[in-house]
Amino acid sequence: MKFEQMIGRVVCAVALAMGVSAGAQDHIAISPVADVASSTPWEYGALLQGGVGLQERTDFSFLMIGGHLGKVITPEIGKGLFKGNLEYAVEVFPFWQSYTPKFQRINCPSGATVATQCSNPYTVGGTYTGASITPIQLRWNFTHGKRFMPWVQAAGGVVWTNHKYPAVGDLNVGDPTQTGPGANTSVWNFTPQGGVGAHYFVKPRRSIDFSANAVHISSASLGDKNPGVNVSLQMSVGYTWWK
Q: Is the pTM of this model over 0.70?
């Protein structure tokens, strides 16, 4: 073999090795956020969520355990801080509880106008247990970071409870809609909501998640009255797998 040919082969081998090494380094160097943003992955997550009522419902509190299933439906759009993608998701909480004040009510016959015409006091309020699903959740993921991926979202869902929720406060004896356990309300309530949060990638395609959501709870007048929970603040923590 001529010396020039040998040198040529050595140079080619070194160049090939450098190319492979650079490719491997590029793969290693890619950030976890860029990794999931380079495609349209599925997101599977487990969630623990809790919160409190606001405004006139500061004596209400909440606890939920469930999961999140999402699908990124667009490639990255935009540039700079607002660069990101759109995700559609569903959240399900098979365990849902709300803790509310207890108070006494009485059974009143039709036409009763004073409390002495009523009898059999009973307790309403307390703990409500149920399940919720949020089938419409649109989330914008901001993908300019390396490990930290914040997001904003708007969503809507429904919650079912084992008793009509929430119980109405003071009894008006002359009002027949305020007699009987759980009167005036509904076991079905709607949950329009919006919030902010973030994924923090602890390893490629694995993240811990934090969020804060403002949730409105309303029966949309499915019952005689619609006391609802005008605003509640729900905080969640979770863990996500990206596929």
A: yes
pLDDT class for 103, splitting at 50, 70, 90? confident
For tokens 């995700």, name the residue.
87
Query: Which amino acid appears at position 93 of this protein?
Result: F
Residues 6+ apart with CB under 8 A from 43: 68, 69, 70, 71, 72, 87, 89, 240, 241, 242, 243
> Could you tell me which residues come within 8 angstroms of residue 164 by beta carbon, excluding any fewer than 6 positions away?
181, 182, 183, 184, 185, 186, 187, 223
Q: Which CATH number fits domain 32-242: 2.40.160.20, 2.60.40.2250, 2.40.100.20, 1.10.579.10?
A: 2.40.160.20
Confidence of residue 94 (pLDDT cuts 50, 70, 90): very high
